[in-house]
Structure formats: C-alpha cells, structure tokens
Design a protein that fits this description.
Blueprint: E1 3-6, H1 15-35, E2 40-42, E3 53-54, H2 65-68, E4 76-79, H3 89-109, H4 111-127, E5 132-139, E6 143-149, E7 156-164, E8 166-173, E9 178-181, H5 186-194, E10 200-201, E11 206-217, E12 220-223, E13 226-229, E14 232-242, E15 247-250, H6 256-263, E16 290-292
C-alpha cells in the first residue's frame, strides 16, 4: 500500500462520524487514488506474518483518537515507509501529494455535511447518558491476503494473515452526572487544567450521595500487544462530605466521554495506566475520584 488513511476505532467515538469516514470518504479516496496509480488501503497494523492484522489502536491517547473522542472529524494518514530516506522518494512524494489532494478535494466538496455531522454529534456528546466502554478487544474474522514483496528475491507475493477487523466491548460503565476530586489530588486537578476541562471548586462544605471504588487486586491483561492493568474493584455507595476547594467536574461538556475513560480505574486507557499516576493503583484504599450518579 502506498497510502493508508485510518478512521477512529474506539467504540466510544461517534458512529455517525466513523460511518462518514469509512462509507463515504474512503471509497471516494480509493477511486481517486486508483486512477492515479496509487495503492490505497484502510490503515492497518502488522509486524510479521505471525501477527494479527488490525486496524490500528483503540487508545484515546493517539493522534486521531484524542480528537475523535471529542466527536471531531479525525483520521490518520500514513505513507509507505521507504526503509531508507531516499528509497523510492519520488514515488512516495507523489503518492503523498495525491492522497492529501484527494482528501482536500473531498472535504471541500462536502464541507457543510462534515460540519453539520460534527455539530450534531458534539451536541449529543454534551447530553450523552449512554454507557462508556472501558475495555474492548479485537475479534478475529478470518484471514486477510496482504500483498508483499520479498526483499530477498524482489518478487511480489501474498501472505495470508489472521485478521481482526471487528472491535467488541468487554467492560462498560454507567456514565455519572459528575465526578468529584479532592483538592489534595493536585496531579489530577493539573490534568484537568492542562486539558482545559471545565470544573468548579466548592466554596463551602457540601454533602453528596456518591459512588466510590476500592481496588481489590491488580491483575494484568493484554491489549494490542501491550500489558495493561485490569483492576478488580468494589463499588461502594455512601453520603460523603466534600470540603471547600474540592473539585466538581460535570459531564455536561464536550470532554464527557474522555473524562469517563480517563478517570475510571478499570479503563484500559485511563490515567491509572501511566506511571505519573501510579498513586491511583493503591489497593484496599479508597480510589480518590468519586462519582455522582446520573
């Protein structure tokens, strides 16, 4: 493949936007690029014939998913690796130019359609009360014949590789109406500030009926070839008094889904997965993020 465009894959991203990309944009790109002798395909990850072929990552900490989780029209474009900088450089430049031009032509012709879909989907996001998928997996669906060229013989060939085109939910959670974070959790508050997420601080002691977590154990699981924490938790309900300075984070905002994915302890892409937030992994202690039920 000379050029690969990739759609968002995380199940929490907008179905309408993903459908517009894969069912309308991609066929148009393929028609345009084929006429120019450019080989096009849906962005695909593979390393060797022993790998499973999949359509990229589901991680929201990714160039396209980080925008797509906010219901943006977001995708990725990658050209063929030349191995060396100068290898087939003229063709690679021509193919990149053709791919970008074809994309801009389609966007120019469908600008109002894209804008309308994004506006509608962002409006839904702020009102969304649906469950959020915290864990998902790539499901097998037969084999994919991948065209390759032997570096040893220079001949073209096909390799049949296990194909996982479908992503399925494994674990979901109900979306709360808001989260509360104690003021003492400065790293979490800084995370909110850096992402320009709306929140407000309590000006006086305030009582809420909340849900909280306790991490019982921290087994690992594998997602897309990497080990991730898969905490086993107990959820508790109680009346909790928060003090002045504690932070209330409502989900009536564009970061709604992103916040659930980031703050829930069982999320495969949550803050708990990253070393700067390893203090969230403490077992048998109350998880320092509280849910106000919807």
């Amino acid at each position: 493949m000379d050029e690969q465009f990739g759609s968002p894959t995380n199940l929490n991203t907008s179905v309408a936007i993903r459908h517009m990309i894969t069912q309308r944009l991609f066929p148009a790109l393929e028609r345009s690029l084929t006429k120019q002798g450019v080989r096009f395909f849906n962005y695909t990850i593979m390393g060797s014939p022993s790998d499973t072929v999949r359509h990229s990552t589901t991680d929201i900490n990714d160039g396209r998913q980080s925008f797509a989780i906010l219901n943006s029209f977001s995708l990725i474009l990658e050209g063929r690796n030349g191995g060396r900088f100068s290898a087939a450089l003229e063709r690679r430049v021509r193919c990149q130019h053709a791919a970008i031009s074809a994309f801009l032509d389609w966007i120019g012709a469908h600008a109002m359609d894209v804008k309308t879909v994004v506006q509608n989907e962002r409006r839904k996001l702020e009102e969304n009360r649906s469950d959020v998928v915290l864990r998902m997996e790539h499901r097998y669906g037969g084999t994919l014949a991948v065209p390759v060229r032997s570096l040893k013989t220079g001949r073209d060939s096909l390799v049949n590789i296990c194909y996982a085109p479908t992503i399925a939910p494994v674990l979901s959670v109900h979306r709360p109406s808001a989260y509360v974070i104690p003021a003492a959790q400065k790293e979490l508050v800084s995370f909110l500030e850096r992402h320009h997420i709306f929140f407000r601080r309590f000006t006086r002691d305030t009582a809420f009926f909340v849900e909280s977590y306790t991490i019982d154990s921290l087994p690992s699981s594998y997602l897309e070839g990497e080990s991730v924490s898969a905490p086993v938790v107990t959820r508790n309900s109680s009346r909790h008094i928060f003090v002045a300075g504690d932070v209330l984070v409502p989900l009536h905002q564009i970061h709604s889904t992103m916040l659930v994915i980031a703050l829930e302890p069982q999320s495969s892409w949550g803050l708990i997965q990253y070393e700067p937030f390893n203090f969230l992994r403490q077992m048998k202690k109350e998880y320092p993020v509280y849910r106000i039920p919807g």
